[in-house]
TrEMBL record:
Enoyl reductase (ER) domain segment(s): 14-318
Signal peptide: none
UniProt-listed Gene3D superfamilies: Medium-chain alcohol dehydrogenases, catalytic domain, NAD(P)-binding Rossmann-like Domain
Name the record gives this protein: Zinc-dependent alcohol dehydrogenase family protein
Pfam families in the cross-refs: ADH_N, ADH_zinc_N
The organism of origin for this protein: Thalassolituus maritimus
SUPFAM superfamilies to which the protein is assigned, alphabetical: GroES-like, NAD(P)-binding Rossmann-fold domains
Keyword Metal-binding tagged: no
InterPro entries xrefs: ADH-like_C, ADH-like_N, ER, GroES-like_sf, NAD(P)-bd_dom_sf, Quin_OxRdtase/zeta-crystal_CS, YIM1/Zinc_Alcohol_DH_Fams
SMART domains assigned to the protein according to its UniProt record, in alphabetical order: PKS_ER
Keyword Oxidoreductase found: yes
Organismal lineage: Bacteria, Pseudomonadati, Pseudomonadota, Gammaproteobacteria, Oceanospirillales
Keywords noted in UniProt: Oxidoreductase
Length: 320
């Protein structure tokens, strides 16, 4: 096994041009950790915000990437359930206290990891953790239950697709927004009702639970769509909002930030447990994985530019 740990990093925050190739020291698995050979690193929008300095939570080695699918090379002390050769996946880095995932080798907290689904590629597995855990945590916070009406704002995005499917598995009656007919068809394929963003205004007060995946005007529309006493969750509360509707209807508002366990160290095992369950659902064909584009790590700056220009329409996994 080569001990060259190639990586891409940003020595300073800024535009995508700051991303460059480097070599890191070979890491060693400590107590409670796994050493991984990275098979694929998943891209997420938060990567661009961290790189730009808008989210000052960069990984210790300035390497981007939160999601990973990798092969276990060695197992640290006091780790059970994993052996060398296992293919695993998780949202395990990219923020303070960790390595980013856009490198050849990395150590991860074993509690954050789970065996990857067997029926999909490493690249597909690498784009699942962050969006899936975010959707799951949002639905948990909303206490989505069978028979409840649930609106998902942005149902064809990465988090939205997973939220639609997870809510359907809970027995909820799901409606989701999408921006064009192709994306509406995708939502309909999950046995959910697809509507355009402009149609939400005609459904004021109709939903028991609302999940907003965009923030801004999308959350404001979600507050209007929520019924009296409803619960609303958003994954982007970084803005100034008019909460008149929340007061008038006695709404409960949840802000969901799934990276907190990585930053605080608390609740990490819940991520690993969920990913164990998710792998079985994927392999059982009860959960469909998002469309995934594979790019070499050298394309990272280009992918960041495409996302920031609004031209990235699928999930992306990098290979090194």
């Amino acid at each position: 096994m080569s001990n060259v740990n190639s990586a891409w990093y940003f020595p300073e925050t800024g535009t995508p041009d700051v991303l460059s190739e480097t070599h890191l020291a070979m890491p060693i698995a400590g107590e409670g950790e796994l050493l991984l050979k990275v098979l694929a690193s998943g891209f997420n929008p938060i990567d661009t915000k961290i790189r730009a300095g808008l989210a000052p939570i960069a990984a210790d080695n300035q390497v981007p990437g939160c999601d990973v699918c990798g092969e276990v090379i060695s197992v640290g002390q006091n780790v059970s359930g994993f052996v060398p050769g296992d293919r695993v996946y998780g949202c395990a880095g990219g923020v303070k206290g960790s390595s980013g995932t856009l490198c050849r080798f990395m150590v991860v907290d074993a509690e954050l990891m789970a065996p990857a689904p067997k029926s999909i590629s490493a690249e597909q597995a690498a784009v699942l953790p962050l969006v899936s855990i975010t959707a799951f945590e949002a639905l948990e916070r909303l206490h989505v239950a069978a028979g409840e009406s649930c609106l998902i704002m942005g149902g064809s995005g990465g988090v939205g697709q997973m939220a639609v499917q997870l809510a359907k598995l809970r027995g909820a009656v799901v409606t989701a927004t999408a921006g064009n007919d192709t994306r509406k068809d995708q939502i309909a394929s999950f046995d959910a009702t697809a509507i355009g963003h402009h149609e939400v205004a005609s459904k004021a007060g109709m939903f028991d639970k609302v999940l907003d995946t965009h923030g801004g005007e999308s959350l404001q529309a979600g507050l209007m769509a929520a019924g009296p006493g409803a619960q609303v969750a958003t994954i982007n509360a970084r803005n100034t909002y008019d909460l008149t509707q929340a007061h008038a209807k006695g709404l409960t508002l949840h802000a969901v930030f799934m990276l907190l366990p990585l930053l605080t160290g608390k609740g990490r095992i819940n991520h690993g447990r969920f990913l164990h369950w998710l792998a079985k659902e994927v392999d059982g064909q009860r959960i469909a994985v998002p469309e995934t584009e594979t790019q070499p790590a050298s394309a990272v700056a280009s992918v960041h530019r495409r996302y920031e220009a609004g031209d990235l329409k699928t999930k992306v996994a990098f290979t090194l």
